[in-house]
Design brief:
This protein is mainly β. It has a single domain, classed as Hcp1-like (Pnp Oxidase, Chain A, Roll), CATH 2.30.110. Helix content is 6%, strand content 49%.
């Protein structure tokens, strides 16, 4: 299994195969995708726009089949709220290897769907709030970025 540098951990532990220092037993992901859309209507001839609220897709993830599968199947089938989910996208080479440059924290996470494609799994995570932190890599070190939190229930940035 190649190290993608994308790691997932649930508050209600589902152990994965990662053996990287600091990420032991996290779940290794192959990819992660989040889409945020905001409807904007331009009214012809009036020079104004109506800006809608942000709409978040579920966090779509893929991973190779591993020991986390059984726990993820069970959580999905039972509709278990897994608490906080953390996804870290890390440098995979150089002096800053395995330091996160992008961090997602999802609140009250539930596995909304789970697809097993005989060796490659895909699943989606739904959540009630999301915190995103993008760190800067200057070539030698990671510089912490400012986190942004959006609460889907209140529709507000916190």
């Amino acid at each position: 299994m190649d190290d993608s540098g994308i790691y997932l951990k649930f508050e209600k532990q589902i152990p994965g195969n990662v053996d990287v220092e600091g990420y032991e037993n996290w779940i290794m992901l192959s990819s992660c995708n989040l889409s945020i859309n905001r409807g904007i209507a331009n009214e012809t001839g009036q020079g104004k726009r109506d800006v809608g609220v942000p709409r978040f897709s579920a966090m779509m993830c893929t991973k190779e089949s591993d020991k986390a599968d059984a726990g993820m199947y069970k959580a999905h089938l039972l509709g278990t709220v897994l608490g906080k989910a953390e996804i870290h996208q890390c440098q995979t080479s150089g002096d800053s290897a395995h330091k996160p440059y992008k961090i997602f924290e999802l609140s009250d996470t539930i596995i909304a769907d789970y697809n097993d494609n005989m060796g490659m799994d895909s699943f989606s995570l739904v959540f009630t709030a999301i915190k995103i932190q993008v760190n800067e890599f200057d070539g030698t070190q990671i510089i912490d970025g400012e986190p942004v939190t959006f609460n889907l229930a209140s529709g507000k940035v916190e």
